[in-house]
Every structure is written in C-alpha cells, then in structure tokens.
Design goal:
With 363 residues, this protein is of the alpha/beta class. 45% of the residues lie in helices and 9% in strands. The protein is built from twelve helices and eight strands. It starts with 12 loop residues before the first strand and ends with a helix. Bound molecules: thiamine diphosphate.
C-alpha cells in the first residue's frame, strides 16, 4: 500500500485591531459602549497602580511575595469584559486585573499577599475560584465547572487563565482534550507573556504558536495581540458566543509581555536583556488604549489626571483597611482551621502544642 497524506485543516489566525499608536482598524473595531470602555480603562489603570504600590509594600516588608500583572492588563481586561458577570472565572496567580474587574476588593488581595487566608475568600455571589499556584492545575477545575454548567443546562461559560509555561503541563492537554470531546463551554485564555520565570517562550516549546495546540484536539485556536484590549475583547466575544451556542471551547493565545518581575522573589535582570524590555515597553497596553480613548473623545488628558488621583487614594485607603483587619486576624492558630471538616488527632495535638507555646511565651 502506498503511503498517503492525511489532510489536516489547520490555520491559526492572528488578530490585532489597534496599531502601536492606538489607531484602530475601523472594520474590526468591536465598538464597545462608552461606559464599558471607561470601566475597562479604569480597571487597567487601577491594577497597574496597585501592582506598583504592592511592590513597594513588599520591599518594606508589609506584604509577602506576589505576581504582578504589569503589562498584561489588556489581555486580562479585554477578555473578562467580554463575558457576563455570572459566568465563571478560574484564575492562576497573576490575574489582579481580572480580580478587580470581578469585584474582589483590594483589601482581600492585600491580606492574601500578606499571608492571611481570609483574604483569599471570594465575595459571596461572585462565581470565581481562588488563586491557584500549581501551574495549570486550575484548568481541569475550569473544565469540570463547565461540564457541570452544561449538564445543568445553565447558560454560563467558564473563563480560565494561565501562562505559556502552563502549556507544557499535562493538565493543560487533559483539560483541552476533555473540553473539546465533551464540547464544554470553556474559554481558555493563555497569556503568553514570553517567559515562565526564566524559561523563554522559544525554549518552552518548538511549536510556532501556542494557539495551534488547540488544533490537535479539534478545537479552534486563535492568536491575538494581547496588548490590544479591543482585539482580546473581539476574540473573546466570538469564543463566548461559540460556547453559549453549545459549540464548545476555544483557546485564545494572547501575545503579551510581563513588564515586571515574575514574583518579588525574582530578578529578571539575570536572564533577559534591557533591549527586549524596552521594545515591549513601547507596546505598553495602557498608553495605547488611552490614545484610542482620547482620539474617540471618550477620555481626555485631564480626566486621566483626575483618575490617577482618585486611584491613588483608593489604593492607599485599601491598605489602611487591610492593616486594620490584620490586627484582628493575627492569630496563627487559624492555619489549622480549614484543612479538614473534622480535625484529625495529630493536627489537634499540634494545634494544642502551638497554643500552649504561645501562652507560655506571652505569659
Ligand atoms: C506544577 C508547578 N510546577 C512549578 C511551579 C513553580 N512555578 C511557579 S510559576 C512558574 C512559571 C509559570 O509560567 P507561566 O505558566 O508562563 O505563567 P507566568 O508565571 O508567566 O504568568 C513555575 C514554574 C508551580 N507553581 N507549579
């Protein structure tokens, strides 16, 4: 028998709507209403300033380590703004902009980053999962929730977030395969920020794109300019429509860049060069979006100045509130509280020992 070619249809589209100066391709502009545009911009700016304050507070020893979202605000806000409030959101550990959009208070994030479990609690009625540190582990949870939504015939989709590094994990492949096999309403947002700590994107995989990994599972995959909130929004809208119609999941690869450290325990100066950082700085999503908003008379320069002041106050008062709450939460014994419904004897013993130790020390 002669060898035959198995013809596979595959193509990955790349979508970009704004140019470097924030000028849109008019035919592709998703024409988002003014209130939504303003809310998107405000949340992106808030996330940026909140990151900056947190970096300072970490250096001062007020909070522990965290993963800044700086540079990735358009990928995060462009995607989450395109779905409904009662859809589900399953994050990894860098989704500050998404969390703020969804209504997670800054005080909660500060408490969490300062080591207080209570800060990780999702506000009542908000369909979000907590931060997930094990890379890609949240993806199967996202598929499980989507499968449940489908079985319960609920019109809710599931957004899930992860990085380029996550695509090398088994969980990523299991999640994509299951999702497509069962046509679950998932939208997978891969934030390809070019680095997985110190591992560059080229070393992560020889695949030309990450979006093409969807094609192996028979799923649509698209690459978008992840520093262009309009492109991310438009791609997510399409994916959301597909999910709601029962046509299954989509993988969206957002091409973006981590403009800051991986976490505060990292020094990117050791593994990436300044030229690369300078190149991406020019594509910073915030000024680019501001140019667009300014050209469309949605936001003027003086509005931005006023907003900066407002945000500054908001972030500082979130810290004051978090600090106040820390005073009443400063009991290390809570670490034993949420592990088991009924605490096993060995843990009870450890808890008692710690309690005794503290009492003896404090007199
Ligand atoms: C299963 C697992 N392995 C290793 C780590 C340590 N780790 C934390 S973040 C990270 C890199 C993740 O890179 P990527 O998925 O690209 O996301 P990014 O941090 O760039 O947002 C690694 C290896 C972890 N948290 N979980």
């Amino acid at each position: 028998m002669p060898r035959k070619k198995v013809r596979l249809e595959h193509a990955v589209e790349y979508l970009s709507i704004l140019d470097k100066q924030g000028k849109p391709d008019k035919d592709l502009d998703p024409k988002i209403d003014k209130d939504t545009l303003l809310r998107m911009h405000r949340t992106m700016l808030l996330s940026r300033r909140f990151d900056e304050y947190q970096l300072r507070w970490q250096k001062q020893g007020r909070i522990g380590t965290f993963a800044p979202a700086k540079g990735q605000e358009a990928s995060q806000i462009g995607s989450i703004a395109a779905v409904e409030d009662d859809d589900w959101m399953v994050p990894s550990f860098r989704e500050t902009s998404v969390a703020l959009w969804r209504g997670t208070p800054m005080t909660g994030l500060l408490l969490y980053n300062a080591g207080y479990n209570e800060g990780g609690q999702i506000p009542e009625g908000q369909n979000d999962l907590p931060i997930s540190i094990p890379v890609a582990s949240q993806m199967n949870e996202a598929v499980g929730i989507a499968y449940a939504m489908k079985m319960q015939k609920k019109d809710r989709l599931v957004m899930s977030y992860f990085g380029d590094g996550a695509t090398s994990e088994g969980d990523f492949h299991e999640a994509l395969n299951f999702a497509q096999a069962f046509k679950t309403p998932n939208v997978f947002i891969c934030q390809n920020n070019q680095w997985a700590i110190s591992v560059p994107r080229e070393q992560q995989t020889p695949s030309k794109t990450l979006a093409q990994k969807a094609l192996a599972y028979g799923m649509p995959g698209i690459q978008v300019d992840g520093n262009d909130p309009l492109a991310v929004y438009a791609a997510t809208r399409e994916a959301a429509e597909r999910a709601r119609k029962g046509d299954g999941p989509t993988l969206i690869e957002c091409i973006t860049y981590r403009l800051s450290v991986h976490t505060t325990a990292d020094d990117p100066g050791k593994y990436r060069d300044e030229e690369e950082e300078e190149h991406w700085q020019e594509w910073d999503p915030i000024p680019r979006f501001q140019h667009y908003l300014n050209n469309h008379k949605v936001l003027r320069k003086k509005d931005i100045e006023a907003l900066e002041k407002e945000i500054d106050e908001e972030v500082k008062s979130a810290w004051d509130e978090a600090e106040e709450q820390m005073k009443s939460l400063d009991d290390p014994l809570v670490m034993f509280d949420h592990l088991f419904e009924e605490r096993p004897a060995y843990l009870e013993e450890q808890r008692q020992a710690m309690k005794q130790y503290r009492e003896d020390r404090n007199g």
